[in-house]
Automatic annotation (TrEMBL):
This is Carbohydrate ABC transporter substrate-binding protein (CUT1 family). Pfam families: SBP_bac_1. Belongs to the bacterial solute-binding protein 1 family. Residues 1-26 form the signal peptide. The keyword Protein biosynthesis does not apply. Gene3D superfamilies: Periplasmic binding protein-like II (3.40.190.10). SUPFAM superfamilies: Periplasmic binding protein-like II. It comes from Serinibacter salmoneus. Keywords: Signal, Transport.
């Protein structure tokens, strides 16, 4: 899916962000010493001083509240809440944050009950489309100020992901690069392994590691509460776009081609050469079927103790490594681009969240606009010194990103060398992308064939 960093670990939290801020000095209306206005976001809470001049357009919103519902939970939720502090301090708004690992299911329950949040961070454009169509009386199109921000800082393709039937609803938030394979640089160096640059080299390396160690080189896990299965859909999507190309991939997620067409069944089988092969997976965690029950947050950990060598996961997995893990080219872990299968293109699976409003109160509209701004993107980057977060916002200064790996991801996402393709399950109808595709992955990992699973998903595709 996801992503986005939409799958964090931890319990749901409902907290006003002002309550978690560190001691702040009074807001300053003097922008003379501020570097805001150039896309840098000005001084943030972390620096002890906030330039409030950049928030004057929102006016005085003292005493108001905005309720946010999202799938972004601990530890990423803390950084989200810190990034709201300048907006809260300068406008007087209190942002009440609620994160849930059951977001996709529970948001629909809330909407059916007429209990919509003010704002929700949508991790799937497909789910966004479903909500706009099924709950048209509750959603609110983005206001003019938000539209202006998006037009200034995002490409048309990113704006398109938040658009339904020609109406723009949801502004982009964070962005993810998903086509990465994590590994231990020291383990590679000690064994004389080189980072593969083609798919054939990746498979040859996997076979070599299995032969050298007598153990499966890959570790994986797709358990994620009500969203169990989504990491497997990411893996499948990475293989599909590499196997059938970008146009074939687009035909697949738009259903212009059948989900169970032969070339896509073959893609599942190619993925199965890793995820269903007992010689390849699940290093340090169990047999093949353990992939279905291993938490995605912990699935890469065997790399740290030498029981696994390869783990495919998005850039935001950086935040899931245990405290004290060094993420660096010469550190405990690093990641390389998941190689393409041909030389024609280098696809990069991407994802992100989109800010959908369910109310048009001034404070809600102001918050949505803030989240689309360069000020927020840079505040969020500064609030995430540990890394694991990037944005497609062109006003983001990469110097503000927390780690070298974040900058690598930013460079990859912005490079013409790679072709960005959005997470397919996020673009499918919600019943598939956040439903039968997820459960189909679990069925596949626990015994069903590629043909059986794709047939079932195709049969259940909504009209």
């Amino acid at each position: 899916m996801t992503s986005s960093i939409r799958r964090g670990r931890g319990m749901a939290a409902v907290v006003g962000t002002a309550a978690v801020a560190l001691v702040l000095s009074a807001c300053s209306s003097d922008s003379g010493d501020s570097d805001s206005g150039s896309g840098d976001g000005g001084d943030t809470a972390a620096s002890g001083e906030i330039d409030c001049s950049v928030y004057e357009e929102f006016g005085d919103l003292s005493g108001t509240e905005v309720n946010v519902y999202t799938s972004i939970v601990e530890p990423e939720s803390d950084q989200q809440k810190e990034s709201y502090v300048p907006f809260e301090e300068c406008t007087g708004v209190t942002v009440n944050y609620e994160g849930s690992r059951e977001f996709e299911a529970q948001l629909l329950v809330r909407l059916q009950a007429g209990n919509a949040p003010d704002v929700a961070y949508m991790p799937q454009p497909g789910l966004l489309s479903t909500i706009v169509h099924d709950f048209s009386d509750q959603v609110v199109p983005a206001g003019d100020a938000t539209v202006s921000m998006v037009d200034e800082y995002f490409t048309e393709s990113w704006k398109g992901f938040g658009t339904v039937d020609g109406t723009f609803y949801a502004a982009p938030l964070g962005s993810n690069g998903k086509s990465f394979v994590w590994y231990s640089p020291s383990a590679f160096s000690d064994a004389g392994y080189e980072v593969p640059t083609t798919w054939d080299e990746l498979m040859q390396l996997s076979e070599t590691i299995a032969s050298d160690t007598g153990a499966p080189p890959w570790c994986a896990g797709v358990e994620s509460g009500d969203a169990t299965g989504w990491p497997g859909t990411d893996f499948i999507e990475d293989v599909v776009v590499r196997h059938v190309g970008v146009e074939g991939y687009e035909a697949w997620y738009t259903h212009e081609a059948a989900f169970n067409a032969p070339e896509y069944v073959e893609s599942w089988d190619i993925a199965g050469e890793i995820l269903k092969n007992p010689e390849m997976v699940n290093g340090g965690l169990g047999d093949v079927t353990s992939v279905a029950t291993t938490s995605w947050t912990d699935a890469g950990y065997p790399i740290l103790d030498g029981n696994c060598y390869l783990h495919r996961a998005a850039n935001f997995y950086q935040t899931q490594w245990p405290e004290g893990t060094t993420v660096a080219e010469d550190g405990d872990v690093w990641a390389f681009y998941m190689p393409a299968m041909n030389e024609d293109t280098k696809p990069m699976l991407v994802g992100g969240e989109f800010v959908l409003a369910f109310d048009d109160r001034p404070e809600v509209q102001a918050f949505q606009t803030y989240l689309a701004s360069a000020d927020w993107a840079n505040n969020k980057a500064k609030a995430t010194p540990g890394g694991g977060w990037v944005s497609a916002n062109s006003g983001l200064d990469p110097a503000n990103l927390g780690t070298d790996f974040d900058r690598l991801v930013w460079e990859t996402l912005s490079s013409d060398e790679y072709t960005a393709v959005f997470d397919g399950s996020d673009l499918m109808p919600g019943a598939v992308g956040a439903g039968t595709f997820w459960t189909g992955v679990v069925d596949w990992l626990t015994g069903a064939t590629s043909q059986e699973v794709t047939d079932s998903i195709e049969a259940g595709w909504p009209n």
